[in-house]
Amino acid sequence: MKKMNLLVMSLVSAAALSFTSCSDSEDLANDKAGQENVDGFYMTLNVQTPKSDGTRTVLPKDSTIAASAAESDVTSGTIYLVDANDNIVFKKKITETEWAAGKPTQDKVGSTQLKIAVEDVVAGATYKVYFLANAEDAKPNAKDAKPWEDIFTAANKFAKPFDTNNNFAMFNQNDNSVHGNAYTVVFTDDNKKSTSAAKIQYEGKESAIKIERLTARIDEPTSNATKIVAYTKDDATPAEKKAMEDAVKKVNSVKMTGYAISNLADKSYIMQHWTGETLNIPSGITYYQTKDEFGTATKLENGDFFTKATAPNAHVDYVFENNSSTDATAMYFEYTVTLNDMKNADFPEDGTFYRYNNVIYKSFADIYKAYNGVKGLFGGKTAEEMKKEVKAAKAEPTAEGEATVESKLDEFRKAYQIEVFNCGKTYYKQAIKDKYLTYENAIQRNSIYRLTVNNIFNVGAQVPNGTPDKEGLFYLDVTVSVNPWVLNTQDVNLK
Question: Is residue 289 part of a domain?
């Protein structure tokens, strides 16, 4: 019996020594001497979703606009803990059921708190904390997928599926007011109890993780312009001034009938990237609805890009942010022009009119009258012959393979160097600007852009990419508002 007891004691002692030796060597090998490898820590995940008043503290309170519940709701997410070497040491998917358990009440809008059991962390070490909401990793099969470095690619022009109602993709806010990589957590022995869970900090103070939508929102524009008004600035050329004066005299009214958005980026960093105050966008972006896809200077293409105008802000589109100077996200405006006098016009039934040498005409008879002394006008053809050609061009094809109306009008415009405003339609273009950035032609996430046309100083182009123009614009007085949702509005004066 005594021999047996001695044997047992010897084995226990050997095992204890072996465990101690192994543990110490592991700590030393990992350069973690003095720290404790433990499991079973608890932390409080506190996430502030984009509230109705926005999250960007740099913006004034009156610049915000209420978001809908569908735009603000978070249903699930993934938390990441990252060590000093930028390695993910802990990753946990928060299910819909788990998230719903901590979902904010009415008096705590935007703040969701959950207790989470954390494994594989080191006591005393500092970990960065990231939260990806309503989306999966860009590289779901990669063990070291890092959303703060990765890129999302949209399935179509309007940022699908990252703009889905009640499921908008969101990530740590990262801008001049909030640094997305500054959220940290430190675990101590006290945090082994759920009642004393570790708290997330931001720059040394307890804080919720502020997240924001990856997408920007562009609302249906507002038009306060109903007439062509006189241009009072001095930057117009004599020819432009003559054209504008002619338009003021001959145009009875203008009405916005549609709009379209061009240069929609298909890629976005999951977390905003900056170089100083310059917003960075991924390389290799493919743009949907580029300027060239809208046609040439004389031809309208892809008319289905245009959305019918209904009411201000009634329709919304979600897009990825952009800062390209050559491929700026822009809006095309479609207006219908009504002339004061359509008596004896070539097409009084639909309002088609012409512009020749910067002057508006309702008929070829009027053009020939104005150029009475000019021989060989339009190749020597009569006013009636010219009218018949336009009528033929405007006729819809009756058989497969026949030229379209736009193709026939394109040929007519090029052949005779005349602008034809089919059905009284005219077009303007305005690059969208974020007034909170230090440079033009940029839009950023979690922002709403609302363009308001204040004044129009001239009839625009005959087609979206038509000429004449001035830097792509027809003297358009536009206001853009920029607020968190973020909301951006832009006033436009069209010339």
Answer: yes
